[in-house]
Amino acid sequence: MSEGGCLCGSVRIRYTGEVQAKVLCHCVDCRKITGSTYSTNLLVPGDGFSVTKGTPKTYSKRADSGKTMTSHFCGDCGSTLWRGGETFGDARIVKAGVLDDAGALNHAKPAMELYAVDRVAWVSPVSGAEQKQAMADSATV
Fold this sequence. Notes:
The protein is mostly beta strands.
């Protein structure tokens, strides 16, 4: 079981079950919601995911696939905790940085990078990670 929360502590999440994928994303949306050059994501089963405290706000937009992606974030501090959308079915895309256990980040080494073509020039590819030029089909993630 892994737990995490936003910066101010108003929203808390928990998930159980095996991480289905570990992915870096270099898309513009992930840059905007993280305020950084990319996002480190853990795809987790929806049936083991829960919000344990607070009520996150949501923001939905159409992705380049034409499908809707929804960000779930704290309305007080603005931290994005997870995303979800049609492409991923019931699974949740947890932002790895919200996890309480900093050691868990050591186990979050990505096996795939999405939108690698948009990676900033001074960030190197992750050694051994599959490089995708766009969103991977959820069957391969």
